[in-house]
Specification:
Elements: E1 2-6, H1 12-21, E2 26-32, E3 37-44, E4 47-53, H2 60-66, H3 72-79, H4 87-93, H5 99-118, E5 124-129, H6 145-162, E6 172-175, H7 182-185, H8 190-198, H9 205-212, H10 216-228, E7 232-235, H11 245-263, H12 267-280, H13 284-297, H14 301-314, H15 319-331, H16 335-348, H17 355-376
Antiparallel strand pairs: 1-5, 2-3, 2-5, 3-4, 6-7
Helix pairs in contact: 3-4, 9-10, 11-12, 11-13, 12-13, 13-14, 14-15, 15-16, 16-17
Length: 378
Amino acid sequence: MAIEGPLRELGIHDVFQLLDLSRKTGALRVTSELRDDEGDVLFDNGRVIHASIRSNPTSIERILRQAGKIGDAEMAAAKDVVGGAGLGDRLVLARAITQHELERQLQMAIENVIFELMSWREGFFSFEERAVADVPVDARLRISTESLLMEGARRIDEWSRIADKVPSLSVVPTLAPVEEDRASVLDLLPHEWQVLMMIDGERDLRGIAASLGSSEFEIAKIAYGLVSTGVILLRAPERTSTHSMAALTESTEAMASAQAALDGGRPEDALKEARAAVLHGTDATAARLLVARSLLRLARHQEAVDELRRAVQADPITPEVHRELGFAAVRVGDFANARASWEHFLRLAPSSLDVGRVREGLDALTRLEHLLEAHANV
């Protein structure tokens, strides 16, 4: 039996929970027209055993090379091995990598795909029950779906922690001035060296993640560590770089039109222009905020909440997104989400001019919850 539908009606988190609780075995496909992308996840009795995404194709060789676990010598050794069902087995038999490390790297790769899919708030999902005997060789892992959902929530919290040094994915890293004795004490891991080699004074963190085929979350964490140890500095982006001028112009014009339409009392026009700005992608977070504000003007409150959740997943370190999500969530009676969003905002922007308004909202929400609880106990 097929299970399918739009993500705006059943979010990807709910889909994963449904497949976990019902112990489903089969294939889940998630497609997004907005991203022009699709992902596939295989389940065995409710557990994730394999995941892939079209925009960032992975293989065992690429995963292990990017992690610095193998090189040309290890690949050559594996080719000489007789036996083994696939490359992973041959690398283990050649003693190029341990079975434990192989499984650890593959699990991390699967998790990165899952967390990317969990950030999608628009699109379509389809699950087909079927046997999973003919799955890729690396699909021997059985990852708890519940643990994946919990880790997704943890990552949002960790974004809050690193926001003081990495305020946005649009910041551009540059090398810090080197002291005379710096080179002798610099000790970086392979993935840190990868990021360091991508720094050219123009690419922002989002661009580096795309170039390396890594998750934005992981690149932000690496940047946080490099900033904390004084290896790199971060600066605001220069929006006038030639390679992004065309997209920036289109996005700026669309956002200006959206704001003008919103100010002029034409929310339908504002919504259309704001969605066009999202597609251009040069400042997707600001564009999504305009989309959400347009939806609120149209009294499409749940859609606004969904749009803001999408914005949080894509860019969880911009305070305004959490602030707006809190107020939108209250409109649909999602008090738990409202409280969590406002608390995130206060952690991210403790000196913002909106802190007073958000604290008032939290106080009012607390009073309302106490009132409802008292009424329920009567």
